[in-house]
Amino acid sequence: QVQLVESGGGLVQAGGSLRLSCAASGRFFSLNAMGWYRQAPGKQRDLVAAVRSGGSTNYADSVKGRFTISRDNAKNTVYLQMNSLKPDDTAVYYCNTNPPLLVWGQGTQVTVSS
Q1: Which pLDDT score is estimated for 62?
Q2: 3-class DSSP state for residue 42?
Q3: How far from the centroid of its chain's Cα atoms is residue 33's Cα?
Q4: Nearest CA to 100 among 52, 43, 35?
Q5: Per-10-residue mean pLDDT, the chain, length 114
Q6: Parallel, antiparallel, or unpaired for β 10-13 and 108-113?
Q7: Could you give the dihedral angle defined by the CA atoms of residues 107, 74, 62 and 11, in that order, rounded to the nearest 10 degrees?
Q8: How far apart are CA 99 and CA 71, in angstroms?
């Protein structure tokens, strides 16, 4: 069974940076588009960034210019570099395929203080 393990979250002040990692098991990884999603309390889970198998990317308008998604197919890992963080970025962050086809991992909490 494929597993997704997210890490790298934490508490940071507004304007700070964090780098999230998502390690995935299984042979599927290099063949699939991957995405980072986030869910704030009381809100739905939304896609914030995605990277295709060939490396092309797309971003939600709210994070464009601040977040960068990347992948290392050799390591079955996808990353999310988050800069210029804002309190509105506070959420639990998850990775999955894009669209999401796998069982969700536990996510990693990102809290941005003002």
Answers
A1: 97
A2: coil
A3: 12
A4: 35
A5: 92 98 81 93 97 94 98 92 98 96 95 97
A6: parallel
A7: 40
A8: 16
